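Researcher: Re-running this chain for the archive, since the previous output was lost when a drive failed. Same request as before.
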Amino acid sequence: MGRKPCIVFKKIGGIGLVSSYNDFYEGKTFEHVLTKTITQSENHSFCLATMNNHRLHLDHEYASSTQFGRPVIVGTLVLSIAVGITVDDISSGCLANLGYDEVLHHNPVFPGDTIRCNTIVLNCRKSLSKEKRGIVSVKTKVLNQKDELVLSFKRSMIFEVEL
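Model: Regenerated structure tokens:
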């Protein structure tokens, strides 16, 4: 069974690692090569920047008394890093991210954990409201160094369609 591109996309400004956005098709998978080890220092900085002062993320004494036994990395930091990991392969040429859905935290991420991502294209379609635009929807899974699923999310992006 041949793979038919969903839509032909125009690359914006020649950026990104995908050679042509017509490479997007339903079911296409990406094993992103970038990984990231998340430190407690990064967790603290993110908490400070986002005004998240939950003790589970910042207070070693408190965190040691929880079911986790140690501080947990803020979930939105994990999400932000995961999106960043996928940019070169998925969205560096998009016009805009349209939204994030079904963000699920499956397991905690701890300081010193290394995350990696894989993404599958769920859907490609022409925009109903904007001519010469196409929408790509993907699902990304985030795994730690033990290959445990820690986070998953869906995301939609809009691209310029090549005629």
